[in-house]
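INTERNAL TRANSFER SHEET
From: sequence group
To: structure group
Subject: Ig-like domain-containing protein

Please process the attached sequence and return the structure record in the designated field. Keep the field labels unchanged so the import script can parse them.
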Amino acid sequence: MKTQIITVLTAFLLVFAMAAPDVSAQTVPSFPTCANPQGTVTASYSEGDHGVPGNTGTNTGSDTVFELSGDTTMQCFCADNGDGTQTNWWHAASLTDEEVQILKNQGWIVVPNGELWGLAEGEWLTFSSPYACPASNKSDNNSSDNNNSSGDVLGASTDPGGSVLGLASTGNIAMIYGLAGVGVLSLLAGFLLRKISLP
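Return from structure group:
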């Protein structure tokens, strides 16, 4: 009887020792769309070359930056050909390294110092998505395209409640194998103890 109690207690101790710690996931703030911008305009350029995080090419067109809150900013870039890029900027000061890694896995880009982009000092995360914006009304000798359609964001979330970054990391394969092993050992110990105690 003593061996059964010791075996059961050992199994419980192993299971509780391998239990995963609580981990919470950060919620992404909501961003409006460039088709319906909100916030305070902090910069606006009708033409010129502009930077878009993650795009090292030359970006010629118009660019408007909207401050949404102290931690969120939205950049709306429209190339001369009508291809637009909406970039959502999120100040990463309140995020843990694990949360930043989850965001990076989902396509967010880390900008080490926002001050170089005209934002507050510190690390920022950016997420860009394409949208169709009106092309510039400049005309050349070969074209008379006056595209005045409204822009649509293609592929950006407009959920006002935000989005969950992803599933919280609750363990790894070693812990799963360990728990499975404890279960198998417990079953074997139970069968052996039963066999020993039978007359």
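Handover comment: Residues 173-197 form the longest helix (25 residues). The helical segments are 2-17, 97-105, 173-197.
Transfer complete.
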